[in-house]
Specification:
Helix content: 55-70%
Strand content: 5-15%
Number of strands: 2
Distance between the termini: 58 Å
Low-confidence stretches: none
Number of helices: 7
Strand order of the largest sheet: 1-2
Structural class: mainly alpha
Order of helices and strands: HHHEEHHHH
Length: about 150
Amino acid sequence: MLVLLLLNGALLNLSTAPAPVAFMQGLSFFRYGFESMLSNELHNKVVMVEAPGVDAFPLSANLFLSLLGVNPNRMVSDIWMLFVFAILHCFLATFFLMRKTQRKVDVAPPESSEGAESDSKKWPKDAWQSSANVFSKKSSGRQQLL
């Protein structure tokens, strides 16, 4: 995630990036958000540049965008790419969540006459009822003490 944030275009010029980095920039959803935001805010605007020791002067924001390697004509395609990334992330999250929460169903082997007897010796039919009765007796005893 940090690598994708570093490759959004704010720290590295999009147009002068080496080929491996340019490929990774295409996989960064931060890049599309950054480019569409700058295009929306600065396209065809004039900004006043004020620096210490220099008189304020107007600067075309399109020049600033071109220096950063941002193309305002790609704003619509950038927004579509953000939409595609959002849908892709939703599908991936759903897939991994469903994969993690799937319960495995154990299939019991067919019961034999010997296995049924041994199981009935281990677990009487009223085991759950008897444990519930024990708990209810304890709770009723506590209520009497209070």
